[in-house]
Design goal:
By secondary structure, the chain is α/β, with parallel strands linked by helices. It is 37% helix and 21% strand. The strands form two sheets. Strands 1-2-3-5-7 form a five-stranded mixed sheet, covered by helices on one side. Helix 5 crosses helix 6 and helix 6 packs across helix 7.
């Protein structure tokens, strides 16, 4: 494994994204290794829970733009670039926890949202800044983000590229129709 570190602590499988020079940017190789290891932990009866984490500088700073730069919009659309990896991650049956510190941006934010729940350090910053590149979230981020933080915050984040810290992410969005305060 070149892009992830794998350990266990009792019944907990721990996967650490390990591309420090690229702030753990997601590329095809990293996602292939991640999916293979998640499936191995899912099949291992000794592992009862999986923790996915990054570094103190970044959980994952998004998709690796360098890897995608040579492809046209049509090629990216046809290849459905990270869809296979997203489907494999979503199919993991054991509890999957994202332990997020620092940046979880774009694909990194979407990777965290694929997990069953997110434990965020005070330093965590979540965002969908793809709009600043003239594109939209491509790994289901716009749908998952809406379910997690409400329509208003999700639209603002996707349409402006604004980042959200852990404290704000934890607060409910009472303006969302699905998140009315209890009466």
């Amino acid at each position: 494994m070149e892009n992830i570190l794998v350990t266990t602590d009792g019944a907990v499988g721990i996967i650490t994204l390990n591309r420090p020079k690229a702030l753990n940017a997601l590329n095809s190789a990293l996602l292939a290794e991640l999916c293979d290891q998640l499936e191995a932990f899912d099949d291992d009866v000794a592992v009862r829970c999986i923790v996915l984490t990054g570094s103190e500088r970044a959980f994952a700073a998004g998709a690796d733009i360098k890897e995608m730069a040579s492809q046209s919009a049509v090629e990216m659309f046809k290849s459905n670039y990270f869809a296979g990896a997203c489907d494999r991650i979503a199919a993991i049956r054991k509890p999957l926890i994202a332990a997020v510190a620092a940046y979880a941006l774009g694909g990194g934010c979407e990777l965290a949202m694929l997990c069953d729940f997110i434990l965020a350090a005070d330093t965590a910053k979540f965002g969908q800044p793809e709009i600043t590149l003239g594109i939209l979230p491509g790994m289901g981020g716009s749908q998952r983000l809406t379910r997690l933080v409400g329509k208003s915050k999700a639209m603002e984040m996707c349409l402006t590229g604004r980042l959200m810290d852990a404290a704000e992410a934890e607060r409910p969005d009472w303006s969302a129709a699905s998140s009315r305060p209890p009466i």
